[in-house]
């Protein structure tokens, strides 16, 4: 029989001792999180490249698996990458061509539109007026600010040259990693499982499979939704007659990868272009169309395409995007939701689930006033007893009906046996019974 350790006699209350124990554990976990985040920031280029490689792998995985049925795996990988580059290059070429074709008439169109906007600001129904002199003063002030800060701006530009090199490094590393993920990802994962104890392999594989299922579903769903948003935006802008419809649709496609704010921000830019180039009425039509596309995405496309693969509450999405933006800027906003979704999927797979609550929770008033709580408990017991009685009565009625049918069938069978020459109708009735 185990002997309980002696209780401390220093006079510290039990609640304070318990709170202290949980506090230092929380600090250890917080320190571990800080160390992990700091280490991730030091190798962010590698992590970004791996993240992009996983996104491309999740999108092309089905295509590679389909092509593998008729060709080797490595050839299916190469062909899938070539097709994806062809699609991307064709889209980029089309955008550049459409911009070059419309560039001549855009300057005049934008100048006329901006003149109309300034005239409306000066003579419109607004409680304040903005004259052309005010615009000139603002432009002159901006020029003075640029001249005074030209040294800082030049330093920032030269400092960002390294950022351009980082972009090329990320793209090259991501492409290299994608090739191996598509060609031999299964072998790489089996090798990793071989490095951990055998007792933990199945549990690790189950959690990783749940995370990959969620991540791949999110990545493919986001790409499909972004593509649909871009197509709908292109159709809308083309019908209204907004210039640069193709580049703006591509901007909407890219913005759809940023949850909550990306696609609306891109579509607002499209509305501003419509206002400057076509006037107020087309801009209002574009704005209404933007709202309709947003409703279609939130209430139809996301539940239909992603389904149960990514089921995060909108509050969690909003908080995650905000936190990701503060921690990692635009990239943090992009990766926040898949990280949260994968973390929740892995946790859900590893945790031990207790039975869900079925009884209604007591209200605050019932908790504060014990008499009300007791009455609520009694009502719950009475309701439970009533439900049990109803179920028992329904079961008894079903059993009585079944006994009646059996007795009726036996009676008809006995009548047929008593008759020397039963009629076909009697036989049919007996068989039906």
Automatic annotation (TrEMBL):
Pfam families: AI-2E_transport (PF01594). One of its GO terms (cellular component) is plasma membrane. Residues 397-427 have a biased composition (Basic and acidic residues). This is Putative PurR-regulated permease PerM. The chain crosses the membrane at residues 22-41, 47-67, 74-97, 167-185, 234-261, 268-294, 314-347. Residues 397-433 are annotated as: Disordered. GO terms for biological process: transmembrane transport. Belongs to the autoinducer-2 exporter (AI-2E) (TC 2.A.86) family. Its main location: membrane. It is found in: Cell membrane. It is a multi-pass membrane protein. InterPro entries: AI-2E-like. It comes from Salana multivorans. Keywords: Cell membrane, Membrane, Transmembrane, Transmembrane helix, Transport. It comes from the Bacteria.
């Amino acid at each position: 029989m185990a002997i309980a350790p002696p209780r401390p006699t220093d006079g510290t209350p039990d609640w304070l001792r318990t709170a202290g124990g949980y506090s230092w554990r929380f600090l250890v976990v917080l320190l571990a999180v800080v160390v992990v985040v700091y280490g991730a920031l030091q190798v962010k280029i590698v992590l970004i490249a791996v993240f992009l490689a996983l996104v491309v792998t999740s999108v092309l995985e089905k295509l590679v698996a389909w092509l593998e049925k008729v060709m080797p795996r490595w050839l299916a990988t190469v062909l899938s990458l070539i097709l994806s580059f062809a699609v991307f290059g064709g889209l980029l070429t089309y955008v550049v061509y459409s911009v070059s074709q419309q560039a001549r008439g855009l300057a005049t169109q934008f100048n006329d539109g901006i003149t109309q906007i300034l005239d409306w600001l000066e003579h419109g129904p607004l409680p304040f007026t903005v004259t052309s002199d005010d615009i000139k003063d603002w432009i002159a002030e901006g020029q003075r600010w640029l001249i005074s800060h030209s040294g800082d701006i030049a330093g920032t530009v030269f400092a960002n040259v390294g950022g351009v090199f980082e972009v090329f490094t990320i793209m090259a590393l991501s492409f290299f990693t994608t090739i191996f993920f598509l060609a031999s990802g299964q072998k790489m994962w089996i090798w990793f499982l071989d490095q951990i104890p055998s007792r933990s392999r199945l549990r690790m594989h189950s959690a990783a499979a749940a995370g990959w299922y969620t991540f791949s579903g999110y990545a493919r769903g986001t790409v499909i939704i972004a593509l649909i948003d871009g197509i709908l935006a292109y159709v809308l802008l083309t019908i209204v007659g907004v210039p640069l419809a193709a580049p703006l649709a591509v901007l909407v496609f890219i913005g759809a990868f940023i949850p909550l704010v990306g696609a609306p921000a891109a579509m607002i830019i499209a509305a501003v272009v419509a206002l400057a180039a076509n006037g107020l009425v087309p801009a209002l039509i574009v704005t209404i169309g933007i709202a309709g596309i947003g409703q279609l995405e939130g209430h139809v496309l996301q539940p239909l395409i992603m389904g149960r693969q990514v089921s995060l509450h909108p509050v969690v999405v909003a908080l995650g995007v905000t936190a990701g933006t503060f921690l990692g800027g635009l990239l943090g906003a992009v990766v926040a939701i898949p990280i949260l979704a994968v973390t929740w999927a892995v946790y859900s797979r590893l945790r031990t689930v207790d039975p869900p609550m079925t009884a209604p929770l007591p209200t605050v008033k019932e908790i504060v006033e014990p008499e009300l709580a007791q009455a609520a408990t009694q009502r719950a017991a009475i309701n439970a007893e009533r439900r049990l009685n109803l179920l028992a009565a329904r079961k008894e009625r079903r059993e009585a009906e079944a006994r009646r049918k059996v007795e009726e069938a036996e009676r008809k069978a006995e009548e047929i046996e008593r008759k020397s020459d039963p009629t076909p109708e009697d036989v049919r009735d007996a068989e039906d019974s």
